[in-house]
Specification:
alpha/beta, binds ligand 26Q
């Protein structure tokens, strides 16, 4: 080790941390008074911690950039980081000294932490998964760099007006982001529009170049990703768009100075806002610009580093570089790497294709056919003409391969073509990703299996070895250590603290599940964890949850396939029972919903309105509210989940079978000792296998049952024959929850009654109600419930993202662990 690699490491003594806090507060931030101290104190504290990350960061980078180190680039349009302060404190083991230093200012750590805004650079599961993966990569000491976009506005802020969702912009960078480091020296240039020109190079070879382009600069901002107590700090590089200096020189010279400067906005628009849609928003040009901007800037970055170390020798580029594509969103990277190798580095097609297809790996996150991304060729041609040439060439060669393998099967050629034909041509991004990658993975066992038998069957027949499964996971640092310190202490006392880095240690809990003394302590922790959640619900929803009730929670994006509606129907059913006086054996229940609807998704927004209206009726009825409460928590985000999952008894994972690729909230709840009521879908299946059927409430149709069930049953007959469902529908249809807003819920009623209802709400109602009755019975037997709760945590080890990342490293990335 040379001395550049010695860690000077700033001291973590209370004295040194106090001095640094003072220095940053007074000098870096220029604060002399103590008005509005907390906001600035948060920044001063973040800078104090960042100082301690710097040398570890520099050394991690130095080691990762040597020429014989294989590295991975995780490309994602979303990184849903949430807050970073508490995570850094945990991973650097600084809590004690910081608490000591803050005492000097008369501040409390909890209050300062709450001043940090969430980095909401993602929609939901896919974005949060990227963040958990970054944490695990750093903790496992793997050379993985995240590449994403520095959106000026993250996921919108949600509030309710008369029960309806209202969206407000999330200007999260206001007040500054103390974690990011701007690196203007690594700025890249990304091209748009223009056309392809062919020319003969010096050796007479026909070459292509992309001319008359309108360029945008990509400026990187690096965020540190600290590993857990291992002195490693990885990098998340987020790109911001900036205008080039020559931007609209013409107008500028014509004297339209102000107009020319205003035009800069056009370039800077690219990274202005996150698309708040968690299924594809088709055909929006700005979105395609974002995708290419990320792909091109990131690839240029990696190639520039490569050339610096290796010169123009790309032969073994694939041995040292791997790009993981987080869904199809960054898939233009396939065509862009081809372009860079061929046009800018003079490599022939076959060699460029060999390098590309040994470098790219693709993760799929959806089974909904309507969510598969496709782009109109017309738009693609205009924005990225040179890329389209390359996509067409990739497709021509690929179709020739298909024709060779299945001679005469023209239908198959059409089915598999990267270009969808029809009135309008489209580029099918998933097919481009599969053709251009050496690995294609799903995110849970069922999902990966359904990809090979359904959506991507043809491709599986051609290349069975490309396909694999990597069941998702979540980081136990944030989702157990940080969010649930009460449980953490109990675990430490019971089984030692090895679980913090090796979650399989949780298995040691199993023998304690029947220990009544331990059960009592476990129960006490859960009850204590309900208190902050009760406060939050009271504060944000004006609803009082009783600590003695069963906490029944469904938090996730609002989607028909996730079936929040089924949950609401259950609440209406309980309400109906209670108002009829049928409360015998009933356990008091507090039902919590949370989640955002895409602003353009009318039915999802109406489901929110229904939930809020039902809540008003249920909570204001004095005969009902001792038994049942319903609240919809506004602005659900990463930080809310940190309060919610430790206090939850029952986790609702009730998607229509075959629709939820994996789910990751289900794992966070399980780790924190919630029991799951769930369908046979996504990672629920693996949770059920791990914990056993006695400790899981399974209900509903299975994927394989759905087609034949649909042939034989229709929703209206089911409703007519099911007394309870019939009453629920009557309450909805008579306007009981919308007395002064007649007819507003008709679209919801229609979906439940629709014989073609894709989401099978009526079909699964009876089974769901029965499973909820089992939950009720189970909760009354405290010892049995707590035993199950302990066993859930004990069996949750496999849902650590450390396990997931170890599998990516071994099977796809070929990184030594
Ligand atoms: C695409 C094109 C244009 C605009 C938006 C989008 C877009 C953005 C986000 C499409 C999809 C998403 C997000 C999808 C997502 O979060 N999927 C979830 O991924 C999780 C992690 O694998 C799984 O656990 C969930 O089951 C899956 O729904």
């Amino acid at each position: 080790m040379d001395d550049k690699e010695n860690l000077p490491i700033l001291s973590n003594s209370v004295e040194q941390v106090t001095a640094d806090l003072h220095r940053h507060y007074n000098f870096t931030l220029g604060r002399f008074d103590s008005d509005d101290m907390n906001g600035y104190m948060m920044t001063a504290l973040a800078l104090t911690i960042r100082d301690r990350l710097m040398d570890r960061w520099r050394i991690t980078k130095l080691r990762g950039s040597r020429h014989n180190v294989r590295k991975v680039m995780y490309l994602s349009l979303e990184f849903l980081l949430g807050r970073s302060l508490s995570n850094a404190i945990l991973n650097l083991d600084m809590e004690e000294s910081i608490r000591g230093a803050l005492a000097d200012f008369g501040s409390k750590l909890e209050e300062i932490e709450s001043d940090e805004k969430d980095a909401g650079l993602g929609n939901g599961g896919l974005g949060r998964l990227a963040a958990c993966f970054m944490d695990s990569c750093a903790t496992l000491g793997l050379p993985v760099i995240g590449y994403g976009i520095r959106y000026e506005y993250g996921m919108f802020h949600q509030s309710f007006q008369e029960g309806r969702q209202v969206e407000q912009p999330d200007h999260w960078l206001i007040g500054g982001n103390p974690w990011e480091i701007e690196r203007p020296g690594h700025t890249r240039r990304v091209r748009f529009y223009g056309k392809t020109e062919y020319y003969n190079n010096d050796s007479g070879r026909l070459c292509a170049r992309w001319i008359n382009t309108q360029d945008v600069l990509a400026v990187p901002y690096d965020m540190p990703i600290p590993g857990y107590k291992n002195d490693k700090v990885n990098t998340l590089r987020l790109w911001k768009a900036a205008a080039t200096d020559e931007f609209n020189l013409q107008e500028f010279n014509a004297g339209d100075y102000a107009d020319a400067v205003a035009e800069k906005n056009l370039a800077e628009q690219i990274t202005m806002v996150l698309y708040p849609n968690d299924s594809s928003e088709n055909g929006k040009e700005l979105r395609l610009r974002q995708q290419y901007f990320l792909a091109s800037a990131s690839l240029q970055d990696v190639i520039a580093d490569w050339v610096m170390l290796n010169g123009e020798e790309f032969n073994d580029f694939d041995q040292f570089n791997c790009f993981q594509l987080n869904d199809t969103h960054p898939t233009l990277a396939v065509a862009e790497l081809m372009r860079l190798l061929i046009d800018d580095h003079g490599i022939g097609w076959d060699e460029a294709w060999r390098i590309t297809t040994r470098t790219m790996a693709y993760t799929n996150h959806t089974l909904l056919p309507e969510a598969l991304e496709k782009w109109p060729v017309r738009l693609f041609r205009e924005l990225l003409p040179r890329l389209l040439d390359i996509v067409f060439e990739i497709n021509a060669r690929f179709i020739a391969e298909v024709a060779h393998r299945w001679p005469g099967d023209t239908q198959r050629q059409q089915r598999m073509s990267i270009i969808e034909e029809g009135d309008e041509q489209y580029v099918r991004m998933a097919y481009l990703a599969i053709v251009g990658s050496f690995s294609v993975n799903g995110v849970a066992a069922l999902h990966s299996q359904l990809l090979t038998t359904g959506l991507f069957k043809d491709f599986y027949e051609l290349w069975p070895d490309k396909f694999n499964n990597k069941t998702n996971g979540v980081t136990p640092r944030r989702w157990l250590s940080h969010c649930n310190p009460n449980l953490g202490s109990l675990l430490n006392e019971a089984i030692g603290d090895g679980w913090r880095t090796d979650l399989t240690e949780l298995e040691k809990l199993r023998p304690l599940a029947d220990d009544t003394e331990f059960q009592k302590r476990w129960f006490d922790v859960k009850q204590r964890n309900k208190l902050p959640l009760i406060e939050r619900v009271k504060d944000k929803c004006r609803v009082d949850f009783s600590v003695d009730s069963l906490f029944d929670v469904q938090v996730k994006r609002i989607h028909e396939y996730k079936r929040q509606l089924l949950n609401i129907l259950h609440v209406i059913h309980l309400y109906d029972r209670i108002t009829r006086g049928d409360t015998e054996g009933l356990v008091p229940r507090s039902v919590l919903l949370g989640g955002k609807a895409a602003p353009g998704y009318a039915l999802a927004k109406l489901i929110i309105k229904l939930a809020n209206n039902v809540a008003t009726v249920v909570n204001s009825d004095e005969t009902v509210s001792p038994w049942l409460k319903l609240a919809f928590l506004p602005n659900y985000r990463v930080t809310s989940m940190e309060v919610i999952c430790p206090g939850t008894d029952l986790s609702e994972q009730i998607s229509t079978a075959g629709k939820e690729a994996s789910g990751t909230g289900n794992m966070k709840f399980m780790m924190n000792g919630a029991l799951t009521i769930g369908t046979y879908d996504g990672a629920n299946i693996e949770i059920l296998d791990a914990v056993g059927a006695d400790n899981f409430f399974l209900f509903g149709l299975r994927v394989e049952d759905i087609p034949s069930f649909r042939m034989q049953h229709d929703a209206n007959a089911i409703i007519a024959e099911d007394h309870d469902l019939n009453r629920v529908m009557q309450l909805l249809e008579c306007g009981h929850f919308n007395m002064f807003e007649p007819g507003i819920f008709d679209p919801i009623i229609q979906t439940v009654r629709n014989p073609q209802d894709q989401w099978m709400v009526a079909a699964d109602f009876r089974s769901f109600i029965d499973a909820q009755q089992d939950v009720n019975v189970a909760y009354k037997n405290r010892s049995r419930w707590v035993r199950s709760s302990i066993l859930n945590t004990a069996a949750s080890a496999q849902f650590s993202s450390d396990r997931t990342i170890a599998e990516y490293a071994r099977d796809i990335w070929k990184l030594p662990l």
